[in-house]
Amino acid sequence: GFDNRRLIGIIAGAMENAVFVRAPAKVNLHLRVYGRRSDGFHGILSLFQAVSLADELSVGSLKQPNAIEIDGTFDCPPEATTIHKAVLAYRGATGDSRGLSIRVKKAIPAGAGLGGGSSDAAATLRALEALRRADGLAGLGSEALKALGATIGSDVPFFLDGGAALVQGRGEFVEPIPARGDFALLLVFPGFGVGTPWAYGLLDRERPDDSAESDPSPETLLAAYRGKPETWPFANSFEPCVSAARPEIAALVAELRRLGASFAMMSGSGSTVFGVFPDLSAAERAGTALASAGSSALRIFPALPLARPSALE
Known about the structure:
27% strand
């Protein structure tokens, strides 16, 4: 199984202090998007589940103050990444001016609906907090860290805790719930990303009235989460319009069901779809079948749900 204790650990290396952090992906088991609010954001009601697919970050101190070296393969320049934004935000909040070398091994595709950018930002904040503590300095503490995370991206507060959570507001209201460990997932990235602003624009255009959509209460969602996946009433507000524009998404959802998934849906604003299976070997078998029949562009990740990692406090 996946060991949450590996999410963060201080390692000795060439740098004075280095912290190794995992930045797990998430899937939205349910995602209800409400109409645009007066502040320009959309409200959501969602069930987030962190999964074992993860980016890996090694964050170390450099002797040169204020330097930021970010090494990794991104879909934008390193200084435009959420990692860089997280460093600047943390420096602004703490006055910490240490130089940083951050090495990133990306596993979560970009534009995938899996929260990779937000998780990388949260992992960076966790690492910077650990480095300060290792030096005997006061950290921000978890509540201030979450408030800081929300300024970087709506999903960042969730990733500071991980596990499973009911998420509301624009993503800043996160209520952790006991995560299940009795199923596995198969994540399928179709080979192309979906831009979140594009997906929201499409949703506003194609779904002028959000009141026609079913709207289970938070209590209903939590009760359903504990039930059998084949009975889950969960849905994703983005899926009808995004899969109409990209039919490959609907085809993959149908294929996962055909391969035995008890539940299958698109995650976030796309493009990844996921299927729920009874265990990892069943998910892996479905992945093998999909890989042999599907397009070579597919990226297929069997994964396990994660419980909440131990806190940094």
